[in-house]
Amino acid sequence: MSDTTNTPPDPPAPPTDTSNAKGDGLTKCPRCGSAEIGPVPGSDLLRCSFCRYEWSAANFVTSVGFDSPIDKLNGTVTTTGGADIDAQASNLVTLKCQGCGSEVVVNTESALQARCHWCRQVLSLQTQIPNGAVPDAVLPFRLTHEQAVEQVHRFANKRRTFALTRFKKEFVPENVLGVYMPYLLVDGNAHGSVAGFGEIKTAQYLRGPENNRRTYYDADVYRVTRSFDFTVDDLTIESSSSRANQDTRMNTNNVINTILPFDTKNAVTWDASYMGDYTSEKRDLNIDQVTPVARDQMLSIARQKATETTDYNRGVRWETEQLELKGTRWVAVLLPVWLYSYYEKKPGGSVFLHYIAVNGRTGETMGSIPVSVPKLLLVALTIGTVLEGVALAIVANF
Q1: Which of 62, 115, 128, 226 pairs with 245 at a CA distance of 20 to 30 A?
Q2: Assigned domain for 382 exists
Q3: Does 125 map to a domain?
Q4: Which residues contact 233 (CB under 8 A, 6 or more apart)?
């Protein structure tokens, strides 16, 4: 059994202001004043399209003081970017162009920038709004499109033998898209308590008739308890309900989480100029909605830490587990993912969504491709026949 407990919470502190005082509208080059700003491929820099000046936004953690010791956290620390989402907030946001005064509409469902149709200046949404579209921080893409294409191509190539013929014909790795995915990062100051039984093997022997022998063990059994403080740094939690849907009958969403971790300490304060030609998804889960997931993962960390302190050669079976959260600190962030998707049409008209995901920082790649079941069965039967033939040959030799 497992359990989680909390000390009485302190009164909630006001959220840390991470709006960086930019407002909305024009973000201008600090050298020439141009609004034509975009990311530099392969780096964390921004570049002005006119004067070619390059710079980087400030590191998020240090700029808001979130580099303070995690073991001193008490209560829940939140940010303006991680504030609860207003269900009534519209996805359509109107920005007033500071260049010519025109009004420009941005659909925050998939974009956080738009170009003024009159003066052509780029307008960006920089201030947090109550629909979850604007985070506290962003981790820029490091992997270029060409590098992502190569990663996707290499991943699929290793699996071509069993891939569906239709997939091989329709596979175009150049269609991989750069997407900023929404996550909540949480630091945790916690106390874990676990109890169970550990076993040390003292003897091993065989019993039973020749044709049905079994291995048995003797072991000394010990009661084991552990109680300790620990901290968790930048635990990465999915904050999009559509991506958190892990229904394996319909999709392979979980492959996106298998490309973790990201170097989140290098995230910079939010600047929509990093969006460039990339798309984005919007956070639609609040902190209280993802807290149970965070607690379960922290409890798993506690269990692992406790196991590492034991030395029972037959292992430990934990039967009770408790987690006390003394303090947490939450940050809303967009993380870079290169994504290739493919819809497999199954017999009967149903579809299954496959993904190949590439970490936009490290190049770590994971995914799934549609396979031909007859090919797999043929190989399995062939291997089975070969093994059966080998076994008969061995018996004949005896």
Answers
A1: 128
A2: no
A3: yes
A4: 70, 187
Looking at residue 2, its pLDDT comes to 52
* pLDDT for residue 116: 86
Our CA dihedral for 378, 380, 381, 383, rounded to 10 degrees, sits at: 120
pLDDT at 235: 97
The pair of structure tokens assigned to 34 is 């141009």
> pTM value?
0.86
Return the bridge partners of 307, or none. Answer: none
Pairwise CA distance, residues 235 & 144, whole Å: 26
CA triplet 14, 230, 6: central angle to 5 degrees? 55
Gap between the Cα atoms of 199 and 82, Å rounded = 45
pLDDT at 112 over 80: yes
Q: How confident is the model at residue 160 (pLDDT cuts 50, 70, 90)?
A: confident
The DSSP secondary structure of 86-144, one letter per residue, reads -TT--SEEEEE-TTT--EEEEETTT-SEEE-TTT--EEE--S--TTS-S-SEE----S-
Length of the chain measured in residues:
398
Looking at the domain assignment, is residue 22 inside a domain? Answer: no
Give the residue numbers spanning the domain of 133: 37-195+224-272+280-367
Q: How many domains does the chain have?
A: 1
What distance in Å separates the CA atoms of residue 245 and residue 234, rounded to the nearest whole number?
Answer: 22
Which residues, in sequence order, are CB contacts of 396 under 8 Å at separation 6+? none
Copy the structure tokens of residue 171.
């596979």
CB-CB contact of 58 with 269 (8 Å): yes
292: left (phi over 0), alpha (psi -120 to 50) or beta: alpha
- The residues facing 321 across adjacent strands are 194
Q: What are phi and psi of 166, to 5 degrees?
A: -65, -40
Residues 327-353: tens digit of each pLDDT: 999 999 999 999 999 988 877 778 888
The answer to whether 369 and 163 are in contact (CB under 8 A) is yes
Is 292 within a domain? yes
